[in-house]
Design a protein that fits this description.
The protein is of the alpha/beta class. It is built from 15 helices and 13 strands. It has two domains: 2-90, Winged helix-like DNA-binding domain superfamily/Winged helix DNA-binding domain (Arc Repressor Mutant, subunit A); 92-344, 3-Layer(aba) Sandwich (Rossmann fold), CATH 3.40.50.1360. Helix content is 50%, strand content 14%. A seven-stranded parallel beta sheet has the order 3-13-12-7-4-5-6, with helices on both faces. A four-stranded antiparallel beta sheet has the order 8-9-10-11, sandwiched between helices. A two-stranded antiparallel ribbon has the order 1-2. The chain is globular, with a radius of gyration of 22 Å.
Length: 353
């Protein structure tokens, strides 16, 4: 099949372009269904008349259907999408990049979704769906899942299909919550994910950015102590990576602390630890919950992050803590490969087009 794809790319590039266009239409319908034709045309950046012809073709092929509410994928269309995604990976060179990242960071699995989150918010939904599917495939009864907060991990919980039976799973926040929107806090995300999975949920009702004395006192509270014990026994960790300066502002670090981060060239953040591009910890803000040093002992670590702008932050954290599974997008994967090439002095000849 790889050879056939190479032949098609060289001999009938127009056919490949049509395939790309129809794949994008099917994928967008799947993400937003039911979706009206005008709304779909706007999201795709196409004229409504041109789109009507493509949709009519897909309807005649049995891949989409029209309803009063809008366009929907048929069962056949949904099945075809997953097969088509695999071949689009090959056409776009994604498989080679996945293997490159897997080798560079000693990862068990790498999943790259199309697009760049910096340019298209739609990609965050793709990241969420891919991470949710990965969890579904790998979770087993008895697992304890610790989750971080933020928009990307919230999208994973939203896109987890609701189970119809109870499971022996426990979901906990990995750390206390930042003073952000309630729906983006680790506690809220853990609660939603537990409900979707049919598992149980244990909250950690403490803020993330508190002083050392407060942490020591809170850690002795019976309820909090019990939850911390569960967190430290996690078998799965689902988390994202932050840009150092962005996360420092969210944690309301002082001007003096911000200056330290700049002097030490911090680019990435995870669990309150700030790292430079070489993967070295340069600063730390104490909090209750999981620490970055504990991550190595967790059997299954799932990192979900996307967008070209996050590549340096991802390089920093993945260099410090390699292994596990990485779910990212083309924009971040492409930039990561460039950074690795510069770091190793090689050529970036396997980047995504």
């Amino acid at each position: 099949m790889d050879k056939l794809l190479q032949i098609l790319q060289k001999t009938v590039p127009d056919m490949i372009a049509v395939l790309e266009k129809r794949y994008t239409i099917i994928r967008t319908v799947q993400l937003y269904q039911p979706i009206g034709r005008r709304n779909l045309a706007r999201r795709l950046g196409q004229g409504e008349r041109q789109l009507r012809g493509e949709l009519d073709f897909l309807r005649q092929a049995g891949l989409v259907r029209y309803t009063r509410e809008g366009v929907l994928l048929t069962h056949e269309g949904t099945s075809l999408l997953w097969d088509l995604t695999r071949y689009m990976h090959k056409l776009r060179g994604v498989s080679a990049v996945e293997q490159g990242l897997k080798k560079a960071f000693a990862l068990e699995q790498v999943i790259v979704v199309p697009g760049d989150l910096d340019q298209d918010e739609l990609v965050k939904m793709d990241l969420g769906r891919a991470a949710a599917a990965y969890l579904q495939d790998n979770l087993q009864d008895g697992d304890i899942i610790a989750v971080s907060g933020g928009t990307t991990i919230a999208e994973v919980a939203r896109n987890m299909p609701a189970g119809n039976h109870a499971r022996d799973l426990v979901v906990v926040p990995a750390r206390g919550s930042l003073g952000e929107d309630l729906e983006l806090q680790a506690n809220t995300i853990a609660s939603l994910l537990a409900r979707k999975l049919g598992g149980s949920y244990r909250p950690l009702p403490v803020p993330d950015n508190v002083g050392i004395d407060t942490i020591a006192a809170l850690s002795q509270e019976r309820q909090i102590k019990e939850v911390l014990s569960i967190i430290h026994g996690a078998t799965f960790l689902l988390f994202s990576i932050g840009e150092a300066e962005v996360m420092a502002r969210r944690r309301a670090l002082s001007p003096a602390e911000m200056e330290i981060l700049r002097e030490k060239k911090a680019v990435g953040e995870a669990f309150g630890y700030y790292l430079n591009q070489r993967g070295e910890i340069v600063y730390y803000t104490p909090s209750i919950g999981m620490s970055l040093e504990e991550v190595a002992a967790i059997p299954h670590v799932v990192t979900v992050a996307g967008g070209k702008s996050k590549a340096r932050a991802m390089l920093a954290v993945l260099s410090y803590q390699p292994g596990g599974a990485l779910i990212t997008d083309q924009g971040a994967a492409n930039e990561l490969m460039k950074l690795l090439s510069q770091k190793g002095g090689g050529k970036d000849d396997k980047l995504l087009e």
